[in-house]
Protein backbone atom coordinates (compact mmCIF):
# COMPACT_ATOMS: atom_id res chain seq x y z
CA UNK A 1 0.00 0.00 0.00
CA UNK A 2 2.87 2.39 0.76
CA UNK A 3 5.40 3.39 -1.85
CA UNK A 4 8.64 1.43 -1.75
CA UNK A 5 11.14 1.20 -4.57
CA UNK A 6 12.92 4.35 -5.72
CA UNK A 7 12.80 7.96 -4.57
CA UNK A 8 10.18 9.02 -7.11
CA UNK A 9 6.60 9.40 -5.94
CA UNK A 10 4.11 7.30 -7.95
CA UNK A 11 2.32 9.55 -10.44
CA UNK A 12 -1.06 7.89 -9.97
CA UNK A 13 -1.54 9.40 -6.52
CA UNK A 14 0.17 12.76 -6.84
CA UNK A 15 -1.34 16.22 -7.36
CA UNK A 16 -3.72 17.98 -7.56
CA UNK A 17 -3.81 18.18 -3.78
CA UNK A 18 -6.32 19.07 -1.09
CA UNK A 19 -4.14 20.44 1.73
CA UNK A 20 -5.16 19.29 5.20
CA UNK A 21 -4.79 21.76 8.07
CA UNK A 22 -7.24 20.30 10.58
CA UNK A 23 -6.91 22.30 13.79
CA UNK A 24 -3.19 23.04 14.23
CA UNK A 25 -1.63 24.44 17.39
CA UNK A 26 0.28 27.21 15.63
CA UNK A 27 1.59 28.37 12.27
CA UNK A 28 4.71 26.22 12.49
CA UNK A 29 2.48 23.14 12.70
CA UNK A 30 1.28 23.70 9.11
CA UNK A 31 4.68 24.38 7.55
CA UNK A 32 4.34 21.36 5.25
CA UNK A 33 1.06 22.59 3.80
CA UNK A 34 2.36 26.14 3.62
CA UNK A 35 5.52 25.06 1.83
CA UNK A 36 3.60 23.14 -0.83
CA UNK A 37 1.12 25.99 -1.31
CA UNK A 38 3.97 28.49 -1.70
CA UNK A 39 6.16 26.52 -4.10
CA UNK A 40 3.54 24.53 -6.02
CA UNK A 41 0.32 26.64 -5.97
CA UNK A 42 -0.75 25.17 -9.30
CA UNK A 43 -1.02 21.76 -7.61
CA UNK A 44 -3.37 22.93 -4.83
CA UNK A 45 -7.16 22.74 -5.24
CA UNK A 46 -7.99 24.00 -1.76
CA UNK A 47 -7.57 23.55 1.97
CA UNK A 48 -9.49 21.47 4.51
CA UNK A 49 -9.63 22.84 8.05
CA UNK A 50 -11.84 22.50 11.07
CA UNK A 51 -14.27 25.25 11.92
CA UNK A 52 -12.20 26.45 14.89
CA UNK A 53 -8.98 26.68 12.87
CA UNK A 54 -7.83 30.31 12.72
CA UNK A 55 -4.91 29.65 10.36
CA UNK A 56 -5.27 29.73 6.60
CA UNK A 57 -3.21 29.33 3.43
CA UNK A 58 -5.53 31.65 1.54
CA UNK A 59 -6.93 28.74 -0.47
CA UNK A 60 -10.62 27.86 -0.86
CA UNK A 61 -12.11 25.98 2.09
CA UNK A 62 -13.64 22.83 0.63
CA UNK A 63 -14.69 19.39 1.80
CA UNK A 64 -13.42 16.01 0.67
CA UNK A 65 -16.15 15.25 -1.87
CA UNK A 66 -16.07 18.76 -3.30
CA UNK A 67 -12.30 18.59 -3.65
CA UNK A 68 -12.60 15.33 -5.56
CA UNK A 69 -15.25 16.89 -7.81
CA UNK A 70 -12.88 19.80 -8.49
CA UNK A 71 -10.19 17.40 -9.64
CA UNK A 72 -8.17 16.78 -6.48
CA UNK A 73 -6.42 13.42 -6.49
CA UNK A 74 -4.81 13.33 -3.06
CA UNK A 75 -5.33 14.63 0.48
CA UNK A 76 -2.00 15.80 1.84
CA UNK A 77 -1.77 15.80 5.63
CA UNK A 78 0.00 19.14 5.83
CA UNK A 79 0.03 19.51 9.59
CA UNK A 80 2.17 18.03 12.33
CA UNK A 81 2.10 17.97 16.13
CA UNK A 82 4.81 17.31 18.68
CA UNK A 83 6.03 13.80 18.01
CA UNK A 84 4.43 13.55 14.59
CA UNK A 85 1.51 11.40 15.77
CA UNK A 86 -1.94 10.98 14.23
CA UNK A 87 -4.63 12.24 16.55
CA UNK A 88 -8.11 10.71 16.34
CA UNK A 89 -9.42 13.60 14.22
CA UNK A 90 -6.65 13.14 11.65
CA UNK A 91 -7.46 9.44 11.40
CA UNK A 92 -11.18 10.16 10.95
CA UNK A 93 -10.50 12.81 8.32
CA UNK A 94 -8.11 10.54 6.43
CA UNK A 95 -10.77 7.81 6.34
CA UNK A 96 -13.33 10.34 5.08
CA UNK A 97 -10.96 11.42 2.32
CA UNK A 98 -10.39 7.83 1.22
CA UNK A 99 -14.13 7.20 1.21
CA UNK A 100 -14.53 10.30 -0.99
CA UNK A 101 -12.13 8.82 -3.53
CA UNK A 102 -8.92 10.65 -2.57
CA UNK A 103 -5.53 9.09 -1.96
CA UNK A 104 -3.81 10.16 1.27
CA UNK A 105 -0.19 11.15 1.86
CA UNK A 106 1.51 12.22 5.09
CA UNK A 107 4.91 13.08 6.47
CA UNK A 108 4.27 12.16 10.10
CA UNK A 109 6.50 9.89 12.13
CA UNK A 110 3.44 7.75 12.84
CA UNK A 111 2.68 5.97 9.59
CA UNK A 112 -0.60 5.83 7.69
CA UNK A 113 0.10 2.19 6.89
CA UNK A 114 0.18 1.32 10.61
CA UNK A 115 -3.39 2.48 11.28
CA UNK A 116 -5.88 -0.31 10.68
CA UNK A 117 -8.84 2.01 10.01
CA UNK A 118 -6.92 3.98 7.38
CA UNK A 119 -5.59 0.86 5.69
CA UNK A 120 -9.07 -0.68 5.59
CA UNK A 121 -10.52 2.49 4.02
CA UNK A 122 -7.78 2.56 1.40
CA UNK A 123 -8.40 -1.07 0.50
CA UNK A 124 -12.16 -0.81 0.19
CA UNK A 125 -11.88 2.26 -2.01
CA UNK A 126 -8.88 1.17 -4.06
CA UNK A 127 -6.93 4.24 -2.98
CA UNK A 128 -3.22 4.72 -2.29
CA UNK A 129 -1.36 5.66 0.89
CA UNK A 130 2.12 7.18 0.99
CA UNK A 131 4.28 7.82 4.07
CA UNK A 132 6.96 10.36 3.17
CA UNK A 133 9.01 9.50 6.26
CA UNK A 134 9.54 5.99 4.96
CA UNK A 135 12.94 5.57 3.25
CA UNK A 136 13.08 3.25 0.27
CA UNK A 137 14.92 -0.04 0.87
CA UNK A 138 18.42 -0.64 -0.39
CA UNK A 139 20.01 2.70 0.51
CA UNK A 140 23.78 2.08 0.46
CA UNK A 141 26.42 3.03 2.98
CA UNK A 142 28.23 6.18 1.84
CA UNK A 143 31.62 5.64 0.25
CA UNK A 144 32.93 9.20 -0.17
CA UNK A 145 34.24 8.50 -3.67
CA UNK A 146 34.35 11.59 -5.91
CA UNK A 147 31.55 11.70 -8.49
CA UNK A 148 30.93 13.88 -11.51
CA UNK A 149 28.74 16.93 -11.26
CA UNK A 150 28.39 20.04 -9.15
CA UNK A 151 26.52 20.18 -5.88
CA UNK A 152 25.39 22.86 -3.45
CA UNK A 153 24.20 22.17 0.10
CA UNK A 154 22.31 24.57 2.34
CA UNK A 155 23.41 24.50 5.99
CA UNK A 156 22.01 26.33 9.00
CA UNK A 157 22.74 27.94 12.30
CA UNK A 158 19.65 26.12 13.61
CA UNK A 159 16.66 24.03 12.53
CA UNK A 160 13.81 25.64 10.58
CA UNK A 161 15.70 28.71 9.42
CA UNK A 162 14.85 28.47 5.72
CA UNK A 163 17.08 25.81 4.18
CA UNK A 164 14.33 24.32 2.00
CA UNK A 165 13.07 27.72 0.82
CA UNK A 166 16.62 28.81 0.02
CA UNK A 167 17.39 25.66 -1.95
CA UNK A 168 14.19 25.94 -3.97
CA UNK A 169 14.82 29.64 -4.64
CA UNK A 170 18.28 28.77 -5.96
CA UNK A 171 16.80 26.11 -8.24
CA UNK A 172 14.30 28.60 -9.64
CA UNK A 173 16.94 31.30 -10.18
CA UNK A 174 19.39 28.97 -11.90
CA UNK A 175 16.74 27.58 -14.21
CA UNK A 176 15.67 31.09 -15.18
CA UNK A 177 19.24 31.66 -16.32
CA UNK A 178 19.17 28.50 -18.42
CA UNK A 179 21.42 26.53 -16.08
CA UNK A 180 20.38 22.92 -15.41
CA UNK A 181 19.53 22.64 -11.71
CA UNK A 182 17.61 20.15 -9.60
CA UNK A 183 16.33 20.44 -6.04
CA UNK A 184 17.16 17.31 -4.04
CA UNK A 185 14.73 16.92 -1.15
CA UNK A 186 15.73 15.49 2.22
CA UNK A 187 12.61 16.26 4.30
CA UNK A 188 8.92 15.49 4.01
CA UNK A 189 7.84 18.91 2.76
CA UNK A 190 10.59 18.99 0.18
CA UNK A 191 9.64 15.51 -0.99
CA UNK A 192 6.05 16.63 -1.58
CA UNK A 193 7.25 19.75 -3.41
CA UNK A 194 9.83 17.95 -5.56
CA UNK A 195 8.01 14.68 -6.10
CA UNK A 196 11.15 12.79 -5.06
CA UNK A 197 13.72 12.59 -2.29
CA UNK A 198 14.71 10.79 0.87
CA UNK A 199 13.61 11.61 4.45
CA UNK A 200 17.02 11.64 6.06
CA UNK A 201 15.64 12.03 9.58
CA UNK A 202 14.16 8.54 9.16
CA UNK A 203 17.31 6.93 7.74
CA UNK A 204 19.41 4.70 10.03
CA UNK A 205 22.48 6.72 11.01
CA UNK A 206 25.04 4.55 9.18
CA UNK A 207 23.23 5.19 5.90
CA UNK A 208 22.68 8.96 5.98
CA UNK A 209 25.67 9.90 3.84
CA UNK A 210 24.85 7.05 1.45
CA UNK A 211 21.28 8.30 1.13
CA UNK A 212 22.55 11.72 0.09
CA UNK A 213 24.93 10.18 -2.44
CA UNK A 214 21.95 8.20 -3.75
CA UNK A 215 19.67 11.20 -4.35
CA UNK A 216 22.47 13.28 -5.92
CA UNK A 217 24.29 10.87 -8.23
CA UNK A 218 26.89 11.77 -10.82
CA UNK A 219 25.73 14.23 -13.46
CA UNK A 220 27.52 15.35 -16.62
CA UNK A 221 25.37 18.17 -17.98
CA UNK A 222 27.21 21.05 -16.33
CA UNK A 223 24.28 21.65 -14.01
CA UNK A 224 23.84 21.73 -10.25
CA UNK A 225 22.27 19.43 -7.70
CA UNK A 226 20.86 21.67 -4.97
CA UNK A 227 20.59 19.62 -1.79
CA UNK A 228 18.21 20.61 0.97
CA UNK A 229 20.00 20.77 4.32
CA UNK A 230 18.63 19.65 7.67
CA UNK A 231 19.34 20.56 11.28
CA UNK A 232 22.54 22.27 12.37
CA UNK A 233 25.99 21.15 13.43
CA UNK A 234 25.41 23.22 16.57
CA UNK A 235 22.06 21.69 17.57
CA UNK A 236 22.59 18.96 20.18
CA UNK A 237 19.57 17.05 18.92
CA UNK A 238 20.16 17.12 15.16
CA UNK A 239 23.87 17.63 14.50
CA UNK A 240 24.22 14.01 13.37
CA UNK A 241 21.97 14.37 10.35
CA UNK A 242 23.69 17.63 9.42
CA UNK A 243 27.09 15.96 9.42
CA UNK A 244 25.86 13.05 7.33
CA UNK A 245 24.49 15.49 4.75
CA UNK A 246 27.78 17.37 4.59
CA UNK A 247 29.71 14.17 3.91
CA UNK A 248 27.26 12.58 1.47
CA UNK A 249 26.64 15.73 -0.55
CA UNK A 250 30.34 16.27 -1.31
CA UNK A 251 29.30 19.89 -1.87
CA UNK A 252 31.23 22.25 -4.08
CA UNK A 253 29.31 25.12 -2.52
CA UNK A 254 27.61 25.94 0.78
CA UNK A 255 24.97 28.54 1.55
CA UNK A 256 24.55 29.37 5.24
CA UNK A 257 20.95 29.93 6.38
CA UNK A 258 20.10 31.97 9.46
CA UNK A 259 17.18 33.65 11.22
CA UNK A 260 18.54 36.84 12.82
CA UNK A 261 15.71 37.26 15.33
CA UNK A 262 16.21 33.87 16.94
CA UNK A 263 17.93 33.90 20.32
CA UNK A 264 18.47 30.21 21.09
CA UNK A 265 18.44 26.86 19.37
CA UNK A 266 14.95 25.68 18.56
CA UNK A 267 13.53 23.83 21.55
CA UNK A 268 16.67 24.31 23.66
CA UNK A 269 16.62 27.57 25.57
CA UNK A 270 19.95 26.79 27.23
CA UNK A 271 21.81 26.78 23.91
CA UNK A 272 22.37 30.12 22.17
CA UNK A 273 22.77 30.27 18.41
CA UNK A 274 26.37 29.89 17.23
CA UNK A 275 28.45 32.85 16.15
CA UNK A 276 28.14 33.09 12.37
CA UNK A 277 31.82 32.88 11.44
CA UNK A 278 32.33 29.91 13.72
CA UNK A 279 29.28 28.15 12.31
CA UNK A 280 30.30 28.67 8.69
CA UNK A 281 33.85 27.53 9.30
CA UNK A 282 32.70 24.40 11.15
CA UNK A 283 30.53 23.44 8.17
CA UNK A 284 33.38 24.05 5.75
CA UNK A 285 35.76 21.94 7.84
CA UNK A 286 33.28 19.06 7.96
CA UNK A 287 32.55 19.29 4.23
CA UNK A 288 36.25 19.15 3.34
CA UNK A 289 36.38 15.49 4.36
CA UNK A 290 34.73 14.53 1.06
CA UNK A 291 35.37 17.67 -1.00
CA UNK A 292 38.51 19.62 -0.01
CA UNK A 293 37.66 22.33 -2.56
CA UNK A 294 34.29 23.31 -1.02
CA UNK A 295 33.55 27.04 -0.79
CA UNK A 296 30.90 29.20 0.83
CA UNK A 297 29.01 31.23 -1.77
CA UNK A 298 26.36 33.08 0.20
CA UNK A 299 24.19 33.63 3.24
CA UNK A 300 20.40 33.35 3.24
CA UNK A 301 18.48 35.17 5.96
CA UNK A 302 14.91 34.57 7.03
CA UNK A 303 13.95 38.18 7.78
CA UNK A 304 10.20 37.60 8.06
CA UNK A 305 10.31 38.85 11.65
CA UNK A 306 11.97 42.16 10.77
CA UNK A 307 10.73 45.40 9.20
CA UNK A 308 12.00 45.88 5.63
CA UNK A 309 14.59 48.50 6.57
CA UNK A 310 16.01 46.33 9.34
CA UNK A 311 16.05 43.32 7.03
CA UNK A 312 18.18 45.16 4.50
CA UNK A 313 20.51 46.37 7.25
CA UNK A 314 20.88 42.85 8.63
CA UNK A 315 21.79 41.51 5.18
CA UNK A 316 24.36 44.27 4.73
CA UNK A 317 25.87 43.73 8.17
CA UNK A 318 26.12 39.95 7.87
CA UNK A 319 27.32 40.11 4.28
CA UNK A 320 30.13 42.44 5.34
CA UNK A 321 30.98 40.22 8.31
CA UNK A 322 31.33 37.07 6.23
CA UNK A 323 32.39 38.72 2.97
CA UNK A 324 29.61 36.94 1.11
CA UNK A 325 26.41 38.02 -0.66
CA UNK A 326 23.56 37.93 1.85
CA UNK A 327 19.87 37.98 0.90
CA UNK A 328 16.42 36.90 2.05
CA UNK A 329 15.41 34.35 -0.63
CA UNK A 330 11.68 35.10 -0.29
CA UNK A 331 11.73 38.88 0.13
CA UNK A 332 14.80 39.72 -1.95
CA UNK A 333 15.59 36.79 -4.19
CA UNK A 334 18.94 35.03 -4.52
CA UNK A 335 20.43 36.65 -7.61
CA UNK A 336 23.55 37.93 -5.84
CA UNK A 337 24.20 34.47 -4.40
CA UNK A 338 23.73 32.90 -7.84
CA UNK A 339 26.13 35.43 -9.36
CA UNK A 340 28.75 34.27 -6.88
CA UNK A 341 27.92 30.61 -7.47
CA UNK A 342 28.36 30.99 -11.23
CA UNK A 343 31.57 32.99 -10.94
CA UNK A 344 34.57 31.64 -12.88
CA UNK A 345 35.79 29.62 -9.88
CA UNK A 346 32.91 27.19 -10.41
CA UNK A 347 32.84 27.03 -14.20
CA UNK A 348 33.84 23.83 -15.86
CA UNK A 349 32.85 21.59 -12.88
From TrEMBL:
Positions of the D-glutamate N-acetyltransferase-like C-terminal domain: 141-338
InterPro entries, per the entry: DgcN-like (IPR011669), DgcN-like_C (IPR035086), DgcN-like_N (IPR035402), P-loop_NTPase (IPR027417)
Entry superkingdom: Bacteria
Pfam families: DUF1611, DUF1611_N
SUPFAM superfamilies found in the cross-reference section: P-loop containing nucleoside triphosphate hydrolases
D-glutamate N-acetyltransferase-like N-terminal domain ranges (all copies): 57-135
NCBIfam families in UniProt: DgcN (NF041892)
Protein name: N-acetyltransferase DgcN
